[in-house]
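Entry 14: structure prediction run for PAS domain-containing protein. Input pasted below.
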Amino acid sequence: FTGSSTLRKSLIVLQFMISIFLIIATVIILQQLSYVQNKDLGYNREQVIVIPFDPLLVPQYDDIRSALAAAPGVLSVAGAYEEPTHIDWGDGITAKDDPKPITVNALPSDENIVKTLGLQIIAGNDFSQVDVRGFDTSNDGANLRYSFMLNEAAVKALGWKPEEAVGKTIVKNREGTVKAVVKDFHFRSLHEAINPLVILLDKRLVGTLFVKISGTQVSRTISGLEQTWKQRIQTRPFEFHFLDEDYDALYKAEQRTAAVFTTFSSLAILLACLGLFALTAYTMARRTKEIGIRKILGASLPDILSLVSRDFLKLVGIALVMATPLAYYAVHQWLQKFTYRIEIQWWVFVAAGLVTIVIAFLTITLQAAKTASANPVKNLRTE
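Run finished. Output tokens:
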């Protein structure tokens, strides 16, 4: 029976190894998801409605924006080329006094973008009506001069400090003045570092509207926006979604992974417990006589349960020792996909071990207690 017993014990160790591995991985994945979902992105994505805007309507843009801003529950309206999570327009800019170019992402927008998205200006001032009037497109743009905002990453790439950047002239196709420096914000997923970004005042390229709402009576606010839209625009249906949905969509793969690991870790624990339950039943059946004699000699139920569970819990301990380094390596490698990530905490491994040990102990106790509480004389007669 030695070979058969060794195989059974090995299977128990393997099952609990898998269970512990999956528990640790699931907890770490859920922690990272919680981190990315709650991290301060540097802009406000809550209660912001996103509405696709037809570039053909740009000549009416100011009137449409004003009408939407007047709807009940609307705090502010801004327009930009695209949503923050979609920014991928790459371009080059140079400082006027340094011809060496740097590569940046670009976001054409109107003068309300900072207010509506809650961007934080750390140097300089927001776009103003003076800047809007200075965007002169007459005479084929002969007098046009851009107004720019740079993020911290762009300022650093240019070799400046934020205060030094304000008022500088940079060239992006044509010259413009740096009005302000905004604090770095995450316009891509946390898998990636924050790239240099230039926000340029150019309402001709608006393709997306952002509507910041109060958050009370949301349905009424949306109905008001839809009514205003239909009154002003007959060529395009009213379509919208919330800005935070775009951000959540960046982590669909991780959410699916978490769901799969949660399901499989639960299934693995169940299978491991069933195996342990069966092995306990088998062992107790073989030790019926021994247990009967111990009870006659004065052993209590806790004494017998301790005797029986000791060997099985050693198997769980072996599984824990073997699974821990494997799980650490796996989750560490997975976290490397994120530029911004959590630190792996030691307590996760301790908690996974304790949970597994408690579940195993309860499983053993449930089966062992039947034999241990039986009449010892009856057990001896059975033998």
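Notes: The longest strand covers residues 98-109. Will compare against the previous run tomorrow.
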